[in-house]
UniProtKB/TrEMBL annotation:
Transmembrane segments: none annotated. This is Insecticidal toxin complex protein TcdB2. It holds the Pfam family SpvB. It is found in: Secreted. Its main location: secreted. It comes from Burkholderia pseudomallei 1710a. InterPro entries: Sal_SpvB. The keyword Nucleotide-binding does not apply. Keywords: Secreted, Virulence. One of its GO terms (cellular component) is extracellular region.
Length: 206
């Protein structure tokens, strides 16, 4: 009788479970969550930008709002910088500085009862917030130029704590009607000066 063949048992299949590295190699989250915005139910999120700790450091943050349109940082994303603008919620502005309503930090501006004055070849009109709270005041500077060659206006804001801010003095810091730079819709923050002479400059790419 021939001998029976011998067999070698097959080892069980080893399944290797993938494991992610732990410790410093993991990327932590930002620690921020979406939150509802008032009664509209829109989602919003704010991420503060890290800046060097100096005395006049601007408080900058990227904010997301689900009901906002496209912007330079993406859909619904904007940078928290103050802007002066003509009011558009009640119709198309006339781009006549004496007739349009201006808006700043969510509030309408009211011209001073004293009326405009002329200083250094400019017409200067002082404005206040309609709902006064911080006691800031604003100055609209309109260059006195011929009617057939109007020059864009710009703004200076005096804060209650002594800071001075300049809006839209250069063309890159203004949003104007295409082909008509004198018809300005928005004036963006261009410079901040503290009572101690510290400066912060903002530049905008065309």
């Amino acid at each position: 009788m021939s001998p029976l063949p011998t067999t070698t048992p097959t080892p069980p299949l080893q399944v290797v479970t993938a494991a992610f590295p732990k410790g410093g190699g993991a990327l932590p989250g930002l620690g921020q969550t979406l939150s509802p915005s008032g009664m509209s139910g829109a989602a919003q999120l704010s991420i503060a930008l890290p800046l060097p700790p100096v005395r006049l450091a601007p408080a900058l943050a990227l904010t997301y709002h689900s009901q906002q349109g496209n912007g330079p940082f993406g859909l619904g994303v904007a940078l928290t910088l103050p802007t002066l603008a003509r009011q558009t919620s009640r119709g198309t502005p006339s781009y006549a500085d004496g007739r349009d309503v201006f808006v700043f930090e969510g509030d309408e501006l009211v011209p001073d009862a004293a009326g405009p004055t002329e200083v250094d070849n400019e017409r200067l009109t002082r404005y206040h917030m309609r709902h006064e709270g911080r006691f800031d005041y604003l100055e609209l500077h309109q260059p006195l130029t011929p009617a057939d060659a109007p020059a864009p206006a710009w703004w200076r804001v005096w804060r209650a704590d002594g800071r001075c801010e300049v809006f839209g003095r250069c063309a890159a810091a203004r949003t104007a009607v295409p082909g008509n730079p004198a018809q300005v819709l928005e004036w963006h923050l261009e410079e901040t000066v503290s009572p101690h002479g510290e400066h912060v400059y903002y530049s905008y790419a065309p």
